[in-house]
Write the structure tokens for this entry.
Amino acid sequence: MRSKIHLSEHFTYGKLLRFTLPSIVMNIFSSLYIIVDGYFVANYVGKTEFAAVSLIMPVLNILGTTGYMFGVGGSALIAKKLGEKDREQADRLFSLIVLVSFCLGAFLMVSGFIFMPQVTSMLGANGTLLKDSVLYGRIFILALPAWILVYEFQLFFVTAEKPGLGLVVTVCAGLSNIAFDALFIIGFHWGLAGAAAASALSQIVGGVFPLIYFSRKNNSLLKLVKPVWDGRSLIKSMTNGSSEFMAEAAASFVGIIYNVQLLRYAGENGVIIYGLLMYVSLILSAIFVGYSNGIGPVFSYHYGARDHSELRNLRKKSLVLIGITSASMFVISEVIARPYSALFLRGSATLLPDAVHAFRIVSFAYLFTGMAIFGSAFFTALNNGQVSALISFLRTFVFELGAVLLLPTLFGQDGIWYSVVFAELMSAVAGVVFMAALQKKYKY
């Protein structure tokens, strides 16, 4: 039986892969929450309903990734406390973050439910598309507090040295989503409402179990205790994780702009194709996000312990792994372009050539996505939220948003696909520049 890997160890390639694999798989299964709905809706409900899911999901994701902010920023600070051997303060901060994020989720749930029609209308939807988007969004958002907990517990399981248990929870939630989708859509014929209910229930499964586990006596590094208000640490956690929240939220915001532009240049069919591309992007990006999340607490621990030699080792090996994975993803995405698109377009075969064409262009972005994601996460792990936030800001609001607004005027619909590649390339360059500029400061 393989021994448990501790944050304090020296990491070889093998240990890095073993330690981060649960986090990677967790993120992949989290992405399946959205993808499974899309598959069932596209093949068993209808084309317009599939467009509705693709249209409203970026809005819902902005709200859900609030948990990502608390999870990434909080885990970095908590891991630093563990590196300083202050477990009591780590537990108190952990408990405070869980409580505050849940309360914020409840507030956002009520607000989002009330204003869902207005938000959807602002996206450019009307008629049946508007009605379907509101229906899906209002049902899904009822599980928002649990979804926020799902996001942050993925990070906290890693910090608690229990990535395997986090993987089990996420897999169970993902499988429950598949089962509920099949039951509600195929079995009960609930259509779009069934798809939304299935996703909502799966979020509850993934959010409640960790609460039970950490509330009881356990053998992890963390435990839920009576929280003590610590505004400074809470704000530090939020600001430190703001870069990752900005990356996720801004990506969703840019996704909204993509949909607006596609409705303008290609109509409902363009939104459908973009939905297909974003589904595969969720899976491939989840690998990089999962690795960055998994390795983040290790960077934070050794930074807190002032082990500069291990920081250098971790950075070097991470860059090698990311480079190999990026090249592999590009090849895989080119190979699966047609069969993947056909899987979702069985009832809309006329869209297949346009979908494959878009897929071939966007595939080039995966050569740079890993570095773009890791660059931001790396500085978050070093508790430098400012640089991390700047990289995320450049990636979305400067490179991607600028490109998606400008390039379609030059290249039409293809300009929308080119903008994805341009943004990832420039973000990767920004990450490399900041790493080189701050190497002496952090001694990595």
